[in-house]
């Protein structure tokens, strides 16, 4: 059975471990190497990358990985963005079109 790995900033430790998942803490400097190692591992079925780390990756890397390994990498929204995104989705479904909230 393949594993699911969560790559998160150190501030998110031990959140997923407490839920019984495999979690690796990454820094902006180490995230690229850790991501590539996990994606290339035959034991890993899914790599969940915390959105806060994705800005540290070279431009185009996630797109490249998505083409090379479809469905193997997904982005976990940051806690701040998740609340806003959820609220926007509820509003979109209620009124039938997309809106922008500026703050």
List the helices and strands and how they pair.
Blueprint: E1 3-9, H1 15-18, E2 22-26, H2 31-40, E3 44-50, H3 51-54, H4 61-68, E4 73-76, H5 79-95
Parallel strand pairs: 1-2, 1-3, 3-4
Describe the 3D structure.
This protein has 103 residues and is of the alpha/beta class. The chain has one domain: ATPase, V1 complex, subunit F (Rossmann fold), CATH 3.40.50.10580. The protein is 42% helix and 22% strand. The protein has helices spanning 15-18, 31-40, 51-54, 61-68, 79-95; strands at residues 3-9, 22-26, 44-50, 73-76. The protein has a four-stranded parallel sheet. The radius of gyration is 15 Å and the shape is globular. The protein starts with a strand and ends in an 8-residue tail after the last helix. The model has no long low-confidence stretch (mean pLDDT 83).
| Overall outline | globular
The main sheet orders its strands as 2-1-3-4
Number of domains: 1
Main beta-sheet annotation:
4 strands, parallel
Task: Name the structural class.
Answer: alpha/beta
Task: Classify the fold: give the CATH topology.
Answer: Rossmann fold
Mean pLDDT: 83
Helix content: 40-55%
Instruction: Give me the CATH architecture, please.
Output: 3-Layer(aba) Sandwich
Enumerate the spans where pLDDT stays under 50 for 5 or more consecutive residues. none
Cα distance spanning the termini: 45 Å
Number of helical elements: 5
In percent, how much strand structure appears in the residues? 15-25%
- At the fourth CATH level, what is the homologous superfamily? ATPase, V1 complex, subunit F
Strand count = 4
**Radius of gyration from CA coordinates:** 15 Å
Please write the string of helix (H) and strand (E) elements: EHEHEHHEH
CATH class reads Alpha Beta
